[in-house]
Amino acid sequence: MDAFAPDTVLAKRPDNVQSVVDDEIVLLDLGSGQFFSLSGTGRRVWELLDNHAAMGSLVGALLDEYEIDEPTCAREVSALLRQLETRQLVTIGG
Questions:
Q1: Structural domains in the chain, sorted by start
Q2: Contact residues for 1 (Cβ-Cβ < 8 A; gap 6+)
Q3: Is the CB of residue 6 less than 8 Å from the CB of residue 54?
């Protein structure tokens, strides 16, 4: 699956509640009542969404923190964001 373009706009949906539990972030989608958890790199991506509204900025921040090449990072982050969008936790391209 292809990565999103660097200028793709990303945002957390406002109708979610989050809480840190041990090493995870637990998310509650208020609309569906479903819980989700993110740990490791997924948790870090979620945290970075607060300050990095564009895909390129988000990937750049992760490259500063992890030893990974840019194409792989962009593909993996895009895959995670697609999963989060399917679960209605983020909006992409808005």
A1: 10-92 (1.10.10)
A2: 75, 78, 79, 82
A3: yes
d(CA 8, CA 52): 11
Query: Within 13 Å, how many C-alpha atoms sit on residue 1's CB side?
Result: 12
pLDDT for 6-62, tens place per residue? Answer: 999 999 998 899 999 999 999 998 888 999 999 999 999 999 999 888 999 999 999
- pTM here is 0.90
Band of residue 94 on the pLDDT scale cut at 50, 70, 90: low
